[in-house]
Amino acid sequence: MRLSLFTVTLLVIFISPAEQREPCSVLKVEHGKIGKYVGYYRGRRFEELSENSKIEDGEELYLRCEPNYEPFGHPETEEKIACSQGEWEAVPVCEPAMCRGPPPPTPNAVVVRANRTHGGGVVYHCRQFAKKVKYATTTCVFGTWKGDRPVCKDLRCSVDELSFPGLIKGMKKFYLPGHVFTVTCERGFNLTKENNQLKCVYGTWQGHLPPCIAGTV
């Protein structure tokens, strides 16, 4: 009987150990600090970590910012941060607070642009029937809108301003500059001037006033 010789080759696979995870170093944060909560329940408190101290991978830490500053530009006063394999998932930074509320309104104007970051400003445009008579600057300062607002004067003339006895005001409430209001009097009243018309001149009625007078018996 012929004996067959089999050679068995053993493959030895060496599995390298997982790379050692290096700790993160606590960074210096302008207008903020990095720390963790220690204790339990009512005794739980925030403890600041010193700069360059080592942090274990995955350790629960928090970035806390000074008043008027926000972590990563978010509206919270503090935010959770994490270290992964020796690197911060996001570089801890405290940014000046943004103006998250709407800019202050001003009569007869609309906001066309608002930069809500610290130091940003607001652009107001007067409505079509108004004219800007005062220029001003509104600025976002650490989350609060500050400064003056522009003044936009309404150039329309209101019929409600014509408070004269016997005058029929009609349905139209406002007249644009240059437009005229033809006077009509109630029964028992007469025009004080024939074909009397009142003209709107940049927010002011001009013409013969009073437009109507009580008729004689």
UniProtKB/TrEMBL annotation:
Signal peptide: 1-20
Annotated InterPro entries: ComplSys_Reg/VirEntry_Med, Sushi/SCR/CCP_sf, Sushi_SCR_CCP_dom
Localization of this protein: Virion
UniProt-listed SUPFAM superfamilies: Complement control module/SCR domain
Gene3D superfamilies in the cross-refs: Complement Module, domain 1 (2.10.70.10)
SMART domains, alphabetized: CCP (SM00032)
Chief location: virion
Disulfide bridge positions per record: C157-C200, C185-C212
One Pfam family linked to the record: Sushi
Domain of life: Eukaryota
Keywords of the record: Disulfide bond, Signal, Sushi
Domain Sushi as annotated: residue spans: 155-214
Protein name (Swiss-Prot/TrEMBL): Sushi domain-containing protein
